[in-house]
Design the sequence.
């Protein structure tokens, strides 16, 4: 008996969902930041082209499939944290001002960048070469090595720490 949650049905629907998701996100970014002017038809056309290009790349689809559930979980968790603080009596203006603080949004951006780099590394690491006898690409293997990624993450954290500490010293003087 066929069910709605059958894996085969989800495999058939996944490209349509990914296409619509990429098209909507692209259209929203183009419309919000007015990258192509005010013309909504042009925004829709460019978003359509971006979504079609995404569908042609198996690794790009893999990145979208791997990141979308985690971003949904992070957004729901963020909503719970915000509602928790509002429940404790923190004013909405205070929450808005806290999110505008550079330390907060740079930290959130850093978490998102780290997450995306790990997901992209896993997707590219899992992709198979076309020729089974071909030698593996050592450059990509060196970049997605966990030790290299860990060192990059530590360097980024250290750079942010130095930035925030020096900003505090400048403000005290």
Sequence:
């Amino acid at each position: 008996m066929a069910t709605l949650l059958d894996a085969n049905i989800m495999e058939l629907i996944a490209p349509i969902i990914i296409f619509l998701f990429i098209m909507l996100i692209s259209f929203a970014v183009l419309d919000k930041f007015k990258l192509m002017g005010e013309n909504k038809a042009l925004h829709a056309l460019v978003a359509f082209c971006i979504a079609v290009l995404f569908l042609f790349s198996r690794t790009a689809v893999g990145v979208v499939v791997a990141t979308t559930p985690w971003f949904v979980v992070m957004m729901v968790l963020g909503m719970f944290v915000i509602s928790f603080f509002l429940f404790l009596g923190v004013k909405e203006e205070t929450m808005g001002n806290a999110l505008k603080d550079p330390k907060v949004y740079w930290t959130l951006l850093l978490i998102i960048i780290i997450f995306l780099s790990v997901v992209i590394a896993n997707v590219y690491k899992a992709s198979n070469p076309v020729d089974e006898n071909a030698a593996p690409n050592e450059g990509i293997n060196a970049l997605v090595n966990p030790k290299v990624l860990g060192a990059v993450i530590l360097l980024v954290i250290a750079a942010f720490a130095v930035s925030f500490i020096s900003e505090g010293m400048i403000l005290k003087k």
